[in-house]
Amino acid sequence: MKELKEYNRKAAAEYARTWALYRNPKYKDYDPWGGDCTNYISQCIHAGNIPFDNQGNDVMGKWYWYSDSSRTPSWTAADAFGRYIIKNNSELTQNYGIYAEVVDYNQLEIGDLIQLVYQGRAYHTMIVTQVILDDRNYLLDYLICQHTEDLLDYPLSEKIGERKYIKIFGYYQ
Asked: Where is the Putative amidase domain (predicted)?
């Protein structure tokens, strides 16, 4: 039985904050081709100790970026990423790579993800960089970072659209 390895939420959020308003020159900027949001989110979770996943049966079951010509759709496209990250693993499958699930709004933590969806298809991806609690420890809001419309620590409550909340539990290797 493979062991679930830890996702470094703090490192993912630090990377998100560092590069929210800029582009890391190690990666291609996909804004001219429809947006850079999921490329940026993939970079964030990779910085959070999630290794590339080369183990899937086909390109849609993998997640990696070595160069613009050697990458998977799940690295850069919101809907392909959403399908990969949710269907890749469950408590029973333990495939290689990311283990994440769709959760309720109040279950998110730093480093978890939010996707905006329309007619069942994801079109945008964001990362939680801070959880805002009141003095009684009740959830008030989340701060997020994103690319395409570059935002640093922006209130999630200000974003409009149908949402899918994704909790990352770790990864199998």
From this structure: 6-164
pTM over 0.90? The answer is yes
Q: E strands, the chain, where?
A: 65-67, 70-71, 97-103, 113-118, 121-133, 139-146, 151-155, 162-172
Q: Could you give the CA distance from residue 88 to residue 138 in angstroms, rounded to a whole number?
A: 32
Kindly provide the b/e burial profile for residues 104-135, where b requires at least 16 CB atoms within 10 angstroms of the residue's own CB. eeeebebbbbbbbbeeeebbbbbbbbbeeeee
> pLDDT tens-digit profile of 55-90?
877 888 899 999 999 999 999 999 999 999 998 887
**Total residues belonging to the chain:** 173
Whole-angstrom distance, CA of residue 95 vs CA of residue 125: 23
Rg (alpha carbons) of the chain, rounded to whole number: 15
Cβ–Cβ < 8 Å for 88, 97: yes
Confidence (pLDDT) at 84: 95
Phi, psi of 49 (to 5 degrees): 80, 15
Strand pairing report for 65-67 and 70-71: antiparallel
Q: 9-19 and 37-47 are packed helices; what angle lies between their axes, rounded to 10 degrees?
A: 140
For 52, 58, 111, the CA distances from 61, given in Å and listed in that order, are 12, 5, 22
